[in-house]
Specification:
heterodimer, A: 341 residues, alpha/beta, Nucleotidyltransferase, domain 5, 5-stranded mixed beta sheet, 10 strands, globular, B: 155 residues, Rossmann fold, 7-stranded mixed beta sheet, 4 helices
């Protein structure tokens, strides 16, 4: 039975580190957004460990669900639908959220909405401010670097993507070279703010006439620089290394985004994904936009909505509900390499 | 078998030369540090298999599948399993399957890897940004045949 006054979606997200369950009202109001993170456990291991991830999701998903329902002060009978991330991500982790969502959908006769993790990141912005179409989205995280034009609700056009490593992955890998534990983004960002761009690393593909990215060459240049210094018995300034790396990443991200905005007129630019938390990127994007495209509204969700969370999945699910996108049935499976378009 | 490459392009050529020899069920293990050129090698291999999509790093998802070439390519990266086990991932299903498996950081999944494998070790040469030392070692009859065929093509 559909509640006429309030659209209430119970959403699950378990694609990688975080087990998260949320209740979203009318697609934009967060009634609860419980996030149990596994980062502490992963730090010991220097990376996301799928086996550990699955086990932790199992332990946490029921508790998160109870907490999310209690904090939202709703009952299962009040819900409109259940939503869940079905990809991309780690198969074992995704399956935990999917199983939980299916069980609740089945037990309470609720429609099951399958959500693409990237659509979730993009629609995190809807929890902050109303979106006007078309809008541009820059999705940057450990697994993704994509420029997406959202022409209409739930209608995505992939304008450009990384051809090799994701921006966040490059942070984690050079972080390892600097001896920084996973996830390295925050610490590299902090180090970068104390240093200068002295190494002048390459800005890959910045001058090419397309909207794609590449961070593998930057990673190699960084490793080569450190490697050469090691062989000569020199120690390089970690702050300057971090600042130089970060300057290259943000120059390319901002440069390509500006090119996309010049080619496709929009009123809003959404920055989504874990790397949206990066201060260096935020500063450069804000400053460049103010000069080149002052009319465009920049929407960067607060930190808790930039990382993986279920509230964003609920927001995307609400858009799918409104556009009458197909529901899933109980045969829904995880799709680890799911594309947005 | 050992040889050297002098550029990233030539490292990609190694992959291009091996691709036409591959059969369903072949497993290549790629060893080498961060930035050694494992993905560069795989890119050449994938293109020559007829895969048109860009080969992206599989680090985040562990496995990326490409099915638009002559044979399916399963590109795996076990980097993030360093202190864990690959037991529960179901990798065996890929090894027995209809495609070619290329596995980066195989040392982190040693317990689940098949016996018949071609191990390709890529090492950077000192004081050179792009020069690489390749070492190819075959284990098992199928990989030995593959290596013998490759030797003829490489010279």
């Amino acid at each position: 039975m559909i509640n006429k006054q309030r659209e209430l979606i119970l959403a699950f997200e378990s694609s990688c580190d975080e087990t998260s369950v949320a209740v979203i009202e009318n697609g934009h109001r967060i009634l609860s957004n419980i996030i149990a993170t596994q980062i502490k456990s992963h730090q010991r291991f220097g990376g996301v460990v799928p086996e550990v991830a699955s086990r932790h999701h199992v332990e946490q998903v029921l508790n998160c669900t109870k907490l999310a329902m209690a904090e939202a002060e709703v009952d299962y009978e009040d819900l409109t639908a259940v939503a869940v991330t079905y990809g991309p991500g780690l198969v074992g982790s995704l399956l935990i959220g999917i199983c939980a969502a299916k069980a609740i959908s089945f037990a309470h006769h609720l429609p099951l909405i399958p959500v693409n993790h990237l659509a979730g990141h993009i629609y995190a912005a809807q929890l902050i401010t109303p979106l006007s179409y078309p809008f541009m989205a820059l999705v940057v995280s450990g697994g993704h670097t994509e420029l997406v034009l959202v022409n209409e609700p739930n209608e995505y056009q992939l304008l450009g993507e990384t051809r090799d490593d994701a921006a966040g992955e490059a942070y984690d890998k050079i972080g390892r070279v600097l001896g920084i534990t996973y996830p390295a983004g925050k610490e590299v960002d902090a180090l970068a703010h104390q240093g200068q761009d002295t190494f002048n690393f390459p800005r890959a593909m910045l001058d090419e006439d397309n909207l794609d990215f590449s961070f593998s060459g930057l990673k190699s240049a960084f490793i080569n620089t450190v490697h050469h210094a090691d062989q000569l018995g020199e120690t390089l300034d970690r702050k300057d290394l971090a600042a130089s790396f970060q300057a290259s990443v943000s120059d390319v991200l901002v440069g390509k985004t500006m090119r996309a905005l010049a080619e496709h007129p929009v009123k809003q630019l959404v920055v989504a994904g874990g790397v949206a938390a990066n201060q260096g990127l935020r500063e450069k994007l804000t400053a460049t936009l103010a000069i080149e495209q002052p009319a465009i509204e920049l929407i960067i969700p607060p930190l808790r909505l930039c990382g993986d969370n279920a509230a964003m999945i609920g927001a995307a699910a609400s858009v799918q509900l409104a556009t009458k996108a197909p529901f899933a049935d109980l045969s829904l499976n995880a799709v680890p390499s799911l594309d947005l378009v | 078998m050992e040889f050297q490459t002098t550029s990233a392009q030539q490292t990609e050529t190694v992959g291009e030369k091996i691709a036409p020899l591959l059969q369903a069920g072949d497993v290549l293990l790629l060893e080498g540090d961060l930035g050694a050129g494992k993905t560069t090698f795989t890119r050449g291999l994938a293109r020559t298999l007829g895969i048109s999509r860009a080969i992206k790093s599989p680090t985040f998802t562990i496995i990326r599948e490409y099915r638009d070439g002559r044979l399916p390519l399963f590109h795996m990266d076990l980097y993030r399993l360093e202190h864990s086990s690959a037991d529960d991932l179901g990798l065996e299903e890929y090894f027995d399957g209809q495609g070619v498996s290329v596995i980066e950081w195989p040392e982190f999944g040693a317990d689940v890897l098949p016996k018949d494998v071609l191990t390709i070790t890529i090492k950077r040469q000192s004081m050179s940004d792009e020069g690489r030392q390749f070492t190819l070692v075959a284990q098992g009859p199928r990989s030995e045949a593959l290596l013998a065929q490759f030797k003829e093509r490489w010279i």
